[in-house]
Amino acid sequence: MFARLSVYTLLALSICAANAFPQYQSLAGLSRDELDAVIPTLQFSPPQAPPGPLADDSTKLINDPAHPHLPLKDGDIRGPCPALNTLASHGYLPRNGIVTPVQIINAVQEALNLENTFARFLVFSTFLVNGNPITNLMSIGGATPLTGQNPPKPATVGGLDSHNNCEGDTSMSRADFFFGNNHDFNETRFQNLINFSNKFGAGKYNLTVATELRNFLHQDSLHNNPQFSLVSPRLFTAYGESVFPINFFIDGRQKDGQLDLTVARGFFQLMQLPPDFHRHDGAISNEGFETVYNKYPIQPGSNTVGVNTYKADLTSATLFQPCLRYTSFVNNNIKALYPNPTGQLRKAINTNLQFLYESTLADNCTQVFPYGRD
Ligand code: HEM
């Protein structure tokens, strides 16, 4: 047996230690059975303010001896994001795949040089719909008791696998939700990326390939997935993710924008950084997405009554309406999960909503307060 106090202390240490970019162990060596018994009893853990940008965002060695790739242990969770999976398998994130928002921001900044505002936006928007505001924990894959006791329904706390919050159709290496498994690596799907790289990129993944592949994936879902949908917020992640492999998976010392396919497979499938990997030279986010969009512009929309019945959804934000994206995400997506939160839950959601809003300041949107001001 173990004392409750020591478990709290160890958990706190493992969360606070995020700032030092340590290698994470599963919670202080407790067995899976012990964790399963203990984690759901965790109490309120208030949201932590997000970190600012890196002081030095130049390129540097990331696949270093302090962050070895380790095989998954029984119970470790992975999900649809090849970057977060890889960072967990190298110990930049807790290796069990249960994370706090601040841990993710620190990890994606430190290891991949994701720009601070963009990192905060991605993290707080996904956390608000897929994480547990009470314990401040989120799974990078499926729902699990390791994120603690859930707030009352209709909240789902489903982790990043949750469909249509940020995960969605037309992924490069995961199947559409309609076909069953939207989160594990899918070789058939990945072969499209390989074939398009061979056809349009002379064996490399680059901006031309990203453009052609995105159009193909859109057409493919439209023709084969009766429930195909591509509306905000998924619309934004889809176009961002098309250029992410170019912006983040290429070694920071390599400046030609051509991603080697073995390196790509390392991230997408094996969750492994290449040997001697250096991060991008300078903070970066979704640069290039307009190029991908402009050749084959689409309207947000869905198949309405089966395959090939794509209809534009005029209520969805387009890629160029960040304020509509923000307000409808808060007023629709978040409100649907938390219609009337009270007490600490309301406080925690409001704090996370404030963090989300602060990540959109450059867009000059009007802030919305669905649960009142504190
Ligand atoms: C530099 C940082 C990141 C990179 C390079 C990255 C890269 C990617 C890529 C390439 C995909 C597409 C996978 C595919 O189409 O098969 C993806 C998917 C995803 N990522 Fe990330 N990501 C990053 C950060 C994040 C963060 C901070 C979050 C949220 C906390 C996140 C959540 C997701 C989710 C939910 C998906 C699934 C979307 C889908 O394809 O349906 N990612 N990521």
Automatic annotation (TrEMBL):
Cofactor entry: heme b
Endpoints of the signal sequence: 1-20
InterPro entries (alphabetical): Chloroperoxidase, Chloroperoxidase-like_sf
GO molecular function: metal ion binding; peroxidase activity
Gene3D superfamilies named in the record: Chloroperoxidase-like
Domain Heme haloperoxidase family profile: 62-300
Record keywords, A-Z: Heme, Iron, Metal-binding, Oxidoreductase, Peroxidase, Signal
Similarity-based family: Belongs to the chloroperoxidase family.
Protein name, UniProt field: Heme haloperoxidase family profile domain-containing protein
Organism of this sequence: Galerina marginata (strain CBS 339.88)
